[in-house]
Amino acid sequence: MAQAQVYAHTGRLPDYIPLLAQANAQLVAVGIQTVAGQEYFAGAIDQPFALMSVVKPLLLLFLLEQLGWDTVFDRVGIDPSEQSFHSLAQLNADRGFPRNPMLNSGAIALASMLPGSNGSERSEALRLWLNQTAGSRFVLDTAMLTSVRSLRNEANRAIGEVLLRAGSIDHVETALDTYNHICCLSGTVADLAQVGLLLAQPNAIQPINQRAVNALMLTCGLYEASGRFAVRIGLPIKSGVSGALLSIVPGQGAIACYSPTLDATGNSIAGLFLLEQLTQTLNLSIFN
Is the pTM of this model over 0.70? Predict the structure, then answer.
């Protein structure tokens, strides 16, 4: 943990969401849950954090379970992108069809498929399903939602307009509000590791859906850095700009990390350091 805290000081806090910019840069936490019921925790384990983009694979999982493969992947693709997570250029190059569910464009399109008439209802449907299915205790961080809403996110709004013209969403404001809500679902590393078991534990969900989400986390979960860390770590991983990381060890368990300072790509710098150390020490890579 001491080494991870050193790494944390080399990163930066995101400055485009006021509350995230106020996070304690020294915080580092890790939680491990195994399919056999073992638990390991270290660091600031009681610190709650917003999931932000870590919610994307959980959103995908929910929709695959509820609506099925064909319906979901008719709305979003499965190919990696070399562009940033909020790239409008990538969406335009793909003629309004989101490249994958881990990009903002893909998640905004999928968020519009959640049941409910507004962002609050749709977010609550996802939150309740996660907590009831996984035994997690996620809550909506209303202060973070207010902070997110305080700035007009022109990049996501432009993405929404392209998605509307392509027929992927019905209403820009509702889709964006839903996306903002689900990104502000909050928990601790224990909650995140607990929900990760859905993607690690045999028979927790439909195997075809489990494989799809894990594969997309491996190839797309760290955005344009995904290929690099597939080699260095070798596990499905999803990051969020809050500093959250979720990693899956298929058939064995889940690892959740939290450290709010980010690298240039927008991934938790100390979290990735911890994951790399754990996977190398414990020989966890799926390619071993």
Answer: yes
